[in-house]
Amino acid sequence: MSIFTKIINGEIPSYKVAENDKFFAFLDINPNAKGHTLVVPKKEENKIFDLSKEEYLELMDFSYSVAKALKKAVPCKRIGMSVVGLEVPHVHVHLIPTSIMADMQFTKKEKLTNDEFIEIANTIAAHFN
Ligand code: 5GP
User: Fold this and answer.
1) Which of 4, 37, 81, 114 lies in the 20 to 30 Å Cα band around 13?
2) Position in ligand 1 atom list of the atom nearest CA 27
3) How many domains are contained in the chain?
4) What sign for the dihedral angle of Cα 64, 84, 125, 44?
């Protein structure tokens, strides 16, 4: 079972942003930028292009709605999107509020307090529809 499946099941805590029957979105614990969100299919699949075309398009559709909420919630120039997966072998779309190129590089990291994580997650969730 992947660490993200444990998060989806509530066995490991997370700062939840959005959820439906197939997908779960939560804040990255080691964010590139404030509001950095991960969108994960509940079905545990390692690589994004091993999803069926239908599953892939549904993931993009859900990520679109999360990105819209994120843009409203967090001041930034744009929402960057990235899929890597070298660390956690469970498909996840990185949605990152981006203002400078370094926000999309996985070397610059933001330190946030528990209260800041909660506040950002709640603000994004409030804009999600
Ligand atoms: P990737 O697999 O695309 O290289 O990156 C995995 C991402 O998952 C990283 O940005 C990392 O900070 C995040 N991550 C790893 N473990 C956890 C966790 O337990 N909780 C949360 N919220 N994020 C995690």
Assistant:
1) 81
2) 22
3) 1
4) positive
Amino acid of residue 100: I
Query: Which CATH number is 87's domain given?
Result: 3.30.428.10
Residues of the domain holding 102: 3-127
Q: Check if the beta carbon of residue 33 is closer than 8 Å to that of residue 96.
A: yes
The residue whose CA has the least distance to atom 19 of ligand 1 is 3
Q: What integer pLDDT is reported at residue 94 of this predicted model?
A: 98
The tens digit of pLDDT for each residue in 10-51 reads 999 999 999 999 999 999 999 999 999 999 999 999 999 999
The DSSP bridge partners found for residue 78 are 98
As for ligand 1, residues whose beta carbon falls within 6 Å of it are 3, 12, 14, 26-30, 84-88
Tens of pLDDT along 47-93?
Answer: 999 999 999 999 999 999 999 999 999 999 999 999 999 999 999 99
Q: State the pTM of this model.
A: 0.98
Sign of the alpha-carbon dihedral angle for 5, 9, 11, 16: positive
**Catalytic site residue 127?**
no
